Each structure stands twice: as structure tokens, then as C-alpha cells.
């Protein structure tokens, strides 16, 4: 049975909730995203994007206006919206991407329309199937069935990031852990930081942030988001 609410004090710190504002909060419907990297659409529209003041107003928006997440119509305020998802309220003619702010909380940044169809997604698992098929599972729970013989697909490894166009349903690029590539820290004490890879040793990575600060963290706490520069807008 899916929980409808969770205690505010046990909610992920990435939600950036006021701890003294009620005992319970809405629990998002299960999605492919980790709970710490997703939040209910209610919070996103009301508390982050501030297009509504109350849950009732959010319900009205979802009922009367076309709201999409990754190009799919959504009308449930408990829908779990996750890292790098793209949200559009058609009436506003604006697009927003869910990102991690520098302080490690989930945020939304306005993005240009030409960026709305793509998402960087880390490869979580990879399985070889019969008849030359390759199945990969991505950070947001997406499962892709690919032809292994295709040049782009055969070099995909667990931990890589694929730049996925969810409108055209295809991979446009594969990012690997090479010196100089761009990463976003999505876990650990440095969550929200981003920068260029300076060195990689065993399971540890050193990155240099835009303000020239060096950060050392576990490779598994990071995610590739570009070659030299991020492929999508990460922060305001």
C-alpha cells in the first residue's frame, strides 16, 4: 500500500521543507527516481516555481491547464518529479528543468525551448539480451531496448551518462568519465556542486568548480552532464 503522507521530519533534506510547518507532508507517487532526487509536483509548482499559493490552486492548474512532465500530460499533484525532468505549463509558455542547487536542494531553472527534449541520464544497469539486443536502465527508471551493433550503443557502460531525446526516443550522445568532462554531484556532502573533472583515481574523483574550488568525492556520487560544458542548464 502506497503511503499518502510522510512525516515532515523524515522527508529528504533535498526537499528544503520548513520543519515546523505541520507534522506531515504529501508523499510522491513512486517513480523511477530515488526519493531524495524527486519531489511531488505539488511542491514544485507551489513552493519552488510559485505558480500557486495552495494545494487547491495547484489542483485547479492541473485540471484546467495543460501541464506536462517530459512531454507527458500530468494531472496528479502527487506525481513524482525528479532530477533533470522538464516541466511545462502551456499557459505560461515557459519551460523548467528540475536541478540541484548549490546548497543541495531541488530547484527549478527556466530553460529555452530548444533544450526541452533532452535529458542527461546515468546508466544504472546494462543487460545483454537475445538477438543482439541491449537493455539499459537509466537514472529516472527509463528502460531502453537498443541494437547492440549500433556504434553509439555498443560502447555504453554502467556509470556512463546518455543524452536522451525523449521526444525522438533516441540517444544523441554518450558521456564517459574522462579528464575535462563536466559532472554534477548528486549525493554526499557536496551534493549540488558541479565542475570539470581534474583527476580520477580508483573510485575517487577531483573536480574543479566554476569558482575554481577543488572538490574530492566518490565517483558514484557524481553524474556526467557534459563534455567540457554541461549539455543542459544546471543552475540559475
Summarize it.
The chain is mostly beta strands and 236 residues long. The chain is built from three helices and 20 strands.
Blueprint of the fold:
Elements: E1 5-7, E2 24-26, E3 38-40, H1 41-48, H2 55-64, E4 67-69, E5 72-73, E6 80-82, E7 86-89, E8 94-100, E9 106-111, E10 118-128, E11 133-138, E12 143-147, H3 151-154, E13 161-165, E14 170-175, E15 181-185, E16 194-201, E17 204-208, E18 214-218, E19 222-227, E20 229-230
Would you mind describing this structure in some detail?
The structure is a single chain. The protein is mainly beta and 236 residues long. The chain folds into 3 domains: 109 residues, Structural Genomics Hypothetical 15.5 Kd Protein In mrcA-pckA Intergenic Region, Chain A (Roll); 58 residues, Ribosomal protein S4, central domain (OB fold (Dihydrolipoamide Acetyltransferase, E2P), Beta Barrel); 49 residues, SH3 type barrels. Helix content is 9%, strand content 42%. The chain is built from 3 helices and 20 strands. It has a 6-stranded antiparallel beta sheet with strand order 18-17-16-15-19-20, with no helix packed on it. The protein has a 5-stranded antiparallel beta sheet with strand order 5-4-7-8-9, with no helix packed on it. Strand 15 and strand 16 form a beta hairpin. The longest helix has 10 residues. The chain is globular. The model has no long low-confidence stretch (mean pLDDT 89).
Amino acid at each position: 500500500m502506497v503511503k499518502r503522507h510522510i512525516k515532515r521530519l523524515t522527508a529528504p533534506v533535498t526537499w528544503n521543507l520548513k520543519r515546523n510547518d505541520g507534522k506531515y507532508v504529501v508523499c510522491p507517487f513512486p517513480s523511477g527516481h530515488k526519493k531524495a532526487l524527486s519531489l511531488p509536483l505539488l511542491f514544485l509548482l507551489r513552493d519552488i516555481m510559485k505558480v500557486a499559493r495552495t494545494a487547491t490552486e495547484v489542483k485547479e492548474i492541473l485540471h484546467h491547464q495543460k501541464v506536462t512532465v517530459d512531454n507527458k500530460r500530468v494531472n496528479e499533484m502527487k506525481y513524482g518529479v525528479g532530477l533533470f525532468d522538464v516541466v511545462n505549463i502551456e499557459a505560461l509558455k515557459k519551460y523548467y528543468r528540475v536541478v540541484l542547487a548549490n546548497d543541495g536542494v531541488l530547484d527549478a531553472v527556466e530553460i529555452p525551448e530548444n533544450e526541452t527534449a533532452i535529458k542527461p541520464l546515468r546508466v544504472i544497469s546494462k543487460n545483454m539480451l537475445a538477438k543482439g539486443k541491449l537493455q539499459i536502465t537509466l537514472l529516472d527508471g527509463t528502460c531502453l531496448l537498443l541494437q547492440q551493433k549500433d556504434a553509439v550503443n555498443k560502447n555504453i557502460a554502467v556509470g556512463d551518462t546518455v543524452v536522451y531525446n525523449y521526444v525522438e526516443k533516441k540517444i544523441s550522445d554518450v558521456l564517459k568519465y574522462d579528464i575535462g568532462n563536466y559532472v554534477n554531484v548528486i549525493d554526499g556532502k557536496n551534493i549540488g556542486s558541479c565542475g570539470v573533472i581534474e583527476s580520477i583515481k580508483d573510485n575517487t574523483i577531483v573536480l574543479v568548480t566554476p569558482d575554481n574550488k577543488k572538490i574530492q568525492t566518490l565517483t558514484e556520487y557524481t553524474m556526467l552532464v557534459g563534455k567540457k560544458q554541461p549539455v543542459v542548464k544546471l543552475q540559475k
